[in-house]
Design a protein that fits this description.
It is found in: Secreted, Extracellular space. By secondary structure, this protein is mainly beta. The chain has six helices and 34 strands.
């Protein structure tokens, strides 16, 4: 279903039920957000209802983000907005000790004796050291895992106010970001704590700019048409805690809220490539390792890793015709010389090998090759240069049509590899039929 249609449903639902939702004994099994890929920025966009009266707010998904932050400088009006005062429980939960004072008349987003944090816009690599912690109403749709249900109103959701400038680089009309990271005020943890369901969420990004993917909050089933529970065949690997912050500005006194996994080696067409194993580990300063990020549209590999992976890929695809590079990609082919399969172009699979050689995330052609011209496809990995903070960043394109379940209690990631092999996609959640 097109995202614009969901948007109209959201507006109608907020208007029609804003006076009564959240005031019944209804206990949702889980919650959902539709997520659509923006064709211009390649960001993943959702809608959430917020404020009193409720307003649909357009936000960009930030998988490793610490908070839901919103531009409060441009037209934020709400009768239920409340700043979090220094020393309050909200500030303690947010793990902030900084108190702010306004140089102007107090207003929404700027109050005396309110606690502040540092929200991040990963798309312009900028932090704002003065985001005000607040509470307000949040509305989000429930689900039984198969269909959408009624909207649930959360009266006191903790979020962060920022000035308008922090929205630079975000998709058109977007007012902030939804942080899904590993801390208590990120969306998954707050929803689970408030509504008493498991601290799990699952991300299923659609490759289409017309049909939305979905984020589930809570446990499965996660049903996709035609009646496929995509949570049934997940492979699991531990989530690794990076002891140091890894955002746009490094924090050496707190652990990262981003999601890291333990890639031990890489195979191309089933054959291991030679990699400096030190790059795959997180060192004592938080450098290295592998993280999953929607802050990058494509996967990024440290230069030496990039070189050996692309060389092996070219060697294994020796019958294909090479063509000129198309920035930011360095390895491109004529699509006429490459066949097609159910899981994308017929190219060598790239395996990210995890805790054992039998546990691996397989990247098929649908996620490894990107069309950049009428007859040109490129290997959808970017050279990250020498000495990047993180050696491997698994970007948005490699996540599309893969189900990723994050279990924050067990600290595990469940992943599907491409759902195309199961004859479904992340655009196949049934947003049109109510439970």
């Amino acid at each position: 279903m097109a995202f614009t249609s969901y948007y109209l449903i959201l507006i109608y639902s907020l208007l029609s039920i804003s006076s009564c939702i959240g005031q019944t004994s209804f206990q949702p099994k889980g919650l959902i957000l539709p997520v659509t890929k923006d064709s211009s920025t390649l960001q993943y966009i959702t809608q959430i209802g917020q404020r009193t009266p409720l307003v649909p707010i357009k936000l960009t998904i930030h998988l490793g983000g610490q908070t839901l932050w919103v531009d409060c400088e441009d037209g934020y009006v709400s009768s239920t907005y409340r700043p979090a005062l220094c020393g309050s429980t909200q500030c303690t939960i947010s793990k902030v000790n900084t108190c702010g004072n306004c140089t102007t008349t107090p207003k929404i987003g700027c109050n005396d004796n309110a606690c502040n944090n540092t929200p991040e816009n990963p798309f312009i690599k900028t932090l704002y050291d003065g985001g005000e912690i607040n509470e307000d109403v949040l509305s989000i749709q429930s689900t039984d895992g198969s269909n959408p249900g009624e909207f649930v109103k959360i009266p006191s959701f903790i979020f962060t106010c920022t000035p308008t400038f922090l929205t630079e680089g975000l998709a058109s009309g977007v007012k902030g970001t939804v942080g899904l990271g590993r801390n208590r005020i990120a969306l998954p943890s707050q929803l689970a704590e408030i509504l008493s369901f498991p601290r799990k969420f699952a991300v299923c990004l659609s490759s289409s700019t017309q049909s939305p993917g979905v984020i589930f909050f809570g446990d499965g089933p996660y049903m996709m048409l035609p009646n496929i529970d995509v949570s049934k065949n997940l492979v699991f690997t531990p989530l690794i805690t990076n002891p140091f912050g890894t955002g746009s500005v490094r924090f050496l006194n707190e652990s990262s809220s981003e999601y890291f996994i333990g890639v031990k080696s890489i195979r191309v067409n089933g054959k291991p490539v030679t990699i400096n194993k030190k790059l795959l580990a997180i060192d004592k300063r938080g450098n290295g390792g592998t993280k999953i990020s929607t802050g990058s549209p494509y996967s990024i590999l440290e230069s030496s890793i990039y070189d050996v992976v692309t060389k092996a890929f070219i060697d294994e695809l020796s019958n294909a015709t090479r063509v000129a590079a198309v920035s930011p990609f360095e390895t491109c082919f004529s699509s006429k010389s490459v066949g097609s399969t159910r899981v994308g172009p017929a190219v060598p699979a790239i395996d990210l090998v995890l805790q054992t050689t039998r546990v691996y995330w397989r990247i098929f052609g649908a996620n490894s090759m990107v069309k950049v011209g009428q007859d040109v496809i490129c290997l959808a990995f970017v050279n990250g240069g020498l000495n990047p903070t993180t050696s491997i960043v698994i970007g948005g394109y490699q996540l599309e049509d893969n189900l990723l379940q994050f279990d924050l209690v067990r600290s595990t990631l469940g992943f599907s590899s491409s759902l195309l092999s199961s004859q479904t996609t992340c655009a196949n959640f049934n947003f049109t039929s109510k439970a």
